[in-house]
Structure formats: C-alpha cells, structure tokens
Amino acid sequence: xxxxxxxxxxxxxxxxxxxxxxxxxxxxxxxxxxxxxxxxxxxxxxxxxxxxxxxxxxxxxxxxxxxxxxxxxxxxxxxxxxxxxxxxxxxxxxxxxxxxxxxxxxxxxxxxxxxxxxxxxxxxxxxxxxxxxxxxxxxxxxxxxxxxxxxxxxxxxxxxxxxxxxxxxxxxxxxxxxxxxxxxxxxxxxxxxxxxxxxxxxxxxxxxxxxxxxxxxxxxxxxxxxxxxxxxxxxxxxxxxxxxxxxxxxxxxxxxxxxxxxxxxxxxxxxxxxxxxxxxxxxxxxxxxxxxxxxxxxxxxxxxxxxxxxxxxxxxx
Length: 317
Description:
Number of strands: 19
Structural class: mainly beta
CATH topology: Jelly Rolls
Order of helices and strands: EEEEEEEEEEEEEEEEEEE
Radius of gyration: 16 Å
CATH superfamily: Exo-inulinase, domain 1
Distance between the termini: 12 Å
Number of helices: 0
Helix content: under 10%
Oligomer: single chain
CATH class: Mainly Beta
Largest sheet: 10 strands, mixed
Strand content: 35-45%
CATH architecture: Sandwich
Number of domains: 1
C-alpha cells in the first residue's frame, strides 16, 4: 500500500447508517465476481500499518495530510459493477474522503472515484505515478454528510466508459483508458492536513455489469480519455520493499491549509500484500508541497500533476 502526501493543491454513499439498512446495491449474488464483508483482512489486500479490519469493517487511517490506498490482488476484471459502503468514524475530520479504485494496473496507474465527508465528489487518474484531475471536486446530489452515515459508492464500467454513483444517484459518466488485459480494483482514504481520519468500508461487491440503479440522476459526462486520476500529487517514492502490495496514495484532500510533510524516507510499500507497490497523494487542501516530492492539485483543482511526499506500504508476500 502506498501513501501520498496530500500536497499543495486547491482541490481535495447507501443510506444513513444510524439505525437504517443500507441500500440494496452492495449485495452479492451467485454470479458475483468478488465479495468481501471484511470479517478478517484477506491476504489479497496486503498488509500495512495504516489499515486493518476492525469490528467487521476495513478501517483505513491515513496520517494527517496523506492518502492511503490498497489494491486487491485477487483477480483481473474486464467490465464490472463495483459497490462498497463507506463511512467516516466520529469525530469526522473535515477534508477527509473515501474512494473506489478501478481500472487499476498497479499503484502508479489507476482511476479513483472519491467522495468527501462534506458531500462532494471528484474523479482522478493516477498515471505513471502522477495525479491527473478529471472531474474537479463539486457538490454531489444524494450524498450523506458527516460521521457515522453510510454512503454507497458504486462504479459501473463498460469499455472505456464508467458511471459513478453515490447512493443510487448518478454523479458523472466518465471516460478513460482501462488496461487492455484486465484491471484490478481497490479502496482509498484521505486525511486532511491537520489530523488523521478513520474511513471505514464494508460489503464490497464486484458483480458483472447488469441493470443500472433506478434513481439515475445524471449530472453530466466527463471525458477523461488518458487522464483520469486521483486527487493529489505524486510524491517521491522509495520502492525499497520487495513485492510491495498496498498503496498508500490518494488524491488531494478537500479542505484548505498547508499539506502535511512527507514522512522521512519517502514511500513505504505495504507488507504481505497485493500486486504493485502503494503510492500516496496530497490531501484535500492548499499549501506548499512537502519537501522531496512533486506537488499537484487538491480538491477542486484542475489538471496537472501534484507532488508531495509519498508514503507507501510494506513488502508484499
């Protein structure tokens, strides 16, 4: 897993969890390609100090000013319907977010659909270790705000097109460049510059594409073509760990303020984990990029690669 310093940048789903049942989309069927209820941490997620399974949920805890991502190494997929329930633990940290990673080749090349605790969403591409903004941070209809609420994130891909949903409402239809020989999926969380957030994920399901959600509230189409990335900026990466797995990287955070400094040593790779080494990106917020890295836009910023320190996972199995 990799962690990216949420560096200088301007920019950084489902039903209420408190007493209500989640929406029906995140349910496995006999035809499901993959499911994880996170009763324990499966080895295909790799292992890293910034994430683990607690009380039946995957909890990702990026350090302040960093994003942490993990890519699942169980299978390569073509067109998919990915769904996961995301929540932020109390007290909620303004500028934190959760994300589905898809069309992933490794920790330096993937797309990220990110949703913040303030009710905004964005779409990013990480390419060759750099973050490229495809859809800037903006208000997302149907998103539940705050802590302890569940937001259902869903991505449905078809060829070079992906539909991004939050709680059954279509946020955007986007385009990108999926890997030719199948792709991986993963999850990502980001913390604001001032404090560390705890983002939880549950009931992850990967199904073959099927029927679209009933509430299809289109908010527009974004063409990402070859740039679709995640928020934040690519940071320097120390690929010293062998067979690195999880990716601690992410897009820029949502809030303003100075980004966190990159941890000494640069990028750490996750231990016992999935495929490629992790990578990290700047958190939601403005500010100067940490030393040693390259900085990029945070929530709401346009294109361009970002830089910041990169903290990745450990070594993989």
